[in-house]
Amino acid sequence: MKPFLLVATRTEDAAADGEYAAFLHYSGLDECDLVRVRVESNPLPDIDLDDWSGIMLGGSPFTSSIPVEHKSDTQRRVEHELGGLLERLVDADFPFFGACYGVGTLARHLGAVLDDTYAEPIGPITVEVTDDGAADPLLDGFPSAFTAYVGHKEAVTKLPPRAVLLGRGEVCPVQMFRVGNNLYGTQFHPELDEPGIIERIGIYRDAGYFDPAEQAEVEARVRGVDVSVPQGLISAFVERYAR
User: Fold this and answer.
1) What are the sequence ranges of the domains in the chain?
2) Among candidates 113, 186, 98, which has minimal Cα distance to 149?
3) In the chain, where do the E strands start and end?
4) Model-level pTM?
5) Cα(201)–Cα(141) distance, rounded to whole angstroms?
């Protein structure tokens, strides 16, 4: 089998390693079959799409919708490199799965508006599968609604051209979409379980997602929640595109 590639942008080692461990666990892959590149540390290497089964893009501390002049040199470089990669992926209709930052990066590349209109605090939400979602092969066998973890400062306000809405939320209307036949994005985090989100809450307590004085309340909000359904998306993506 050709390996999958996880493109990571998290600047904190603990968050980056936790994300990779989560994608390994819920994909069912080992480190040989899920290769990670951390583009916040080094330039994105040359990627020959023929070498890979699919590409995943995880979350990030970067906020894409802020003005360019407020972005760091690293963020501007990363966004430029990801834009070049996404152009190739979209043109080839190549298997791609982007979570949180990944969905926004894909949508923004396609011309969608990304802003703080539908930001959501850290916690569980209900994702409703649309009729198009129910007919999508990646969501085959999934229930009509499921619970997932979110926590984001920006979101897609309107679907980009050519995109198909697969999942919606009550507060944030675009929770999952597909472009072409093989490129997917989710606003929610399918890779997170309870220990994973508790770890991220601690790592990002001073990053503006919540008042640090309310950390205990935020942690209480995410405990005891069944998020096993969205975790199945990662393994479904791998099973569908492994080659």
Assistant:
1) 4-241
2) 186
3) 4-8, 34-38, 54-57, 96-99, 114-115, 120-129, 145-152, 155-156, 163-168, 176-179, 183-186
4) 0.95
5) 31
- 138-168 residue pLDDT tens: 999 999 999 999 999 999 998 988 899 999 9
Which residues in 216-231 are b (16+ Cβ under 10 Å) and which e? eebeebbeeeebeebb
Give the number of residues written for the chain.
243
Quick one: which of 177, 182, 156, 183 has its CA closest to 165? 177
Separation in Å, CA 122 to CA 194, 204, 217: 12, 11, 11
Computed on alpha carbons and rounded to an integer, the radius of gyration of the chain in Å comes to 16
Local structure of residue 229 (DSSP, 8 states)? H
Summarised one tens digit per residue, pLDDT across range 27-67 is: 999 999 999 999 999 999 999 999 999 999 999 888 888 88
Laid out side by side, the sheet with 183-186 consists of 34-38, 4-8, 54-57, 96-99, 183-186, 176-179, 163-168, 120-129, 145-152
Q: Which fold has domain 4-241?
A: Rossmann fold (3.40.50)
Is residue 23 within 8 A of residue 191, CB to CB? The reply is yes
* Type of residue at 31: E
Sequence-distant (6+) residues with CB within 8 A of 240 are: 95, 137, 138
Q: How many CB atoms lie within 10 A of CB 85?
A: 21
208: number of CA atoms within 13 Å, CB side? 8
End-to-end CA distance of the chain: 5
